[in-house]
Amino acid sequence: MKWPKLRTFLLTALILCLIPATRYYQIDVPLLRLLRGSHRVDPLSLHLTGEFVENNLGTEQNPDGSVTVRMIAQQYLFIPHCILVPAGAPVHLRITSADAVHSLTFNGTSYAVKVLPGTISETQLNFPTPGEYKTTCREFCGAGHYAMRSELKVVPREQFPVLHQEERGSCVAQ
Amino acid sequence: MLRNKLLQRTQKFSRWLSATTLALIFLVGVALVGGAATSLLEAGDNPPDRVPSNVAWTPETIAAASAGDAFRGMLLARRCDHCHGAEGFSAVGYTPNLAGMDKLAIWKQLEDFRARKRLSRTMGPIAESLSSRDVADVVAYYAKLPVFHDSQDNRIFPQNPPEANHAGIASHLVSFGDGDRGIPPCQACHGPVAYRPGVPSLATQNVEYVLNQLEAFANRSRANDINEPMRTIATLLSEDERHALAEYYGSGLGLQPGSAK
Hints:
heterodimer, A: alpha+beta, five-stranded mixed beta sheet, 10 strands, 17% helix, globular, B: mainly alpha
């Protein structure tokens, strides 16, 4: 390959590599936002409309066997307070903050998400074996930060409830 | 020679640039059309959203809620005397004390009563009879009433504040919460350490009222807390802890920051 051609190729490759990097560092590029759909939400009106209304929080079962978990981090709670996911299934986590900067860390695993107000943080998780994990906020968020913890329960596939299209699962005690 | 090469390169680059631009425009177009199509499809069969409260704490809402006229509020508040006390201290256990309460806290509850987001046979019709200006005025009046006793005022304060029998349990929850269960400390939102908009300060509140509300949150008969923090916490608390906390705030201990003892 000749140098000009190679240079063009390398430049294109570099630019393409920067696209996932902007997502990882949560840099807002308007053009890319258009491409991948909006990741912006209004932190003050999460409860009024959109993806994070009360009855949409929790675990949603997707037709392909994966699950989507939607959560809100708020001073000083994660909502829902106990997440239920099936073992071995891909988990798409979508979480946003209603006030300050938080983070969601799954203790004993390598998973951690930074949660910013106004942005939906997305991650793919996978828990191959059943078990219980504590989740912690690792970003100082205020006077009650140290008590901001919740739980994640990974249950065997058979024990995971069958959820209908509009149903959302969680292990919060009623 | 050099000029020729440069020209060639410029031509090449412009071709590459135009191709990339075209491709980008095409991709953006596809994304836009796709996004519009999916949003149209999604709009079709959405289940009705459960909205806990119509209030969102935008700067405009906060400005509207705190722009009341306290004097007009004082005249309007004579209607409230019978239950909430002439000076904001209620003689009845299950009605809240309103003296010195944060403006936004009372305003939000009145708005929720008006919108039937918080259900009450007494407060529902009363709140519905108020205009939004009345609400802001009444709220401004109660926010101005002092919580503390001083030698100049001849108000009737609760005579025998109940004893905090389980102050140890409650004090620990108030100041530290319970990290293992994920219960945040009460004083981080209800004061005096920190507040959040729309959260009532619990400086002096009636025992029965606090207990009733904690139980209502736990069994979901009251569900107007935005993003369900109180429903979650009340469910996590045990029966004993709810009683201990009610007594703690009922005995006026909430005026000081909690301590370990």
